[in-house]
Design goal:
With 255 residues, the protein is of the alpha/beta class. It is 35% helix and 24% strand. Helix 6 runs parallel beside helix 7. It is globular, with a radius of gyration of 19 Å.
Amino acid sequence: MLNTPIMKIGLIGFGKTGKAAAHVILLHKDFSLEWVLKRKLLSHRTASEFLGVESNDPAVIHAAQSTPVGRLLKEAPVDFIIDFSSEQTVYEYGEEAARRKVKIISAISHYPQSIVAYLKKLAESTVVFWSPNITLGVNFMMLASKYLQKIAPFADVELVEEHFKAKSGISGTALKIAEALGIKSEDIKHVRAGGIVGKHELIFGFPYQTVRLIHESIAREAFGNGALFAAGNLKDKVAGFYNFEDLLAPYFKID
């Protein structure tokens, strides 16, 4: 039996979620974290040292201000770039990645239309995947709810989102779910309390029954798992612009 080649990952962004994603990648046998690119260099040389994870992955941390992406991709080539940084960062690596056919997985929660257009331009040359919420559970819930709404368009639908007390505004995930189901943003119910990582609940009200679809984020590592699920399903795809529905829809075909 042939061994599946290890997929090499370059991670951009090393905030709370980026660190959680790095932790997941370092522990996964099918992926190798080759490097991390962040704004400022840490005193630790590798992500595994910083996170206290035993791993043979190189996972070298580089500072964006002193390490050009082109040089990094040349000296430490990767199959995928996973981006957990900020809106504008894609402009710093996008063209270099596309030119080298490096696949891009963006986990940025919101992009203006101008950057979405830029991503689609990059997708003419390489695989580009973007999901405002990159957890597998949320995207399963979203797709399942669209099927349920198609089956029962007469059902009342309510959306409730819960997050930590300091989070301002409606969550990007809730807005995306609302958009998919035709719910007005002003009708989204929201709760802010304590340290809730994130919870989204869809309530389908039928005349004599209720269906509830609930997704709750327990830890930020869920975002790393979602990114690796995307990578595993994108590895053989041709250049193009993909989202989670593209990856999940085939699984809904029951033999």
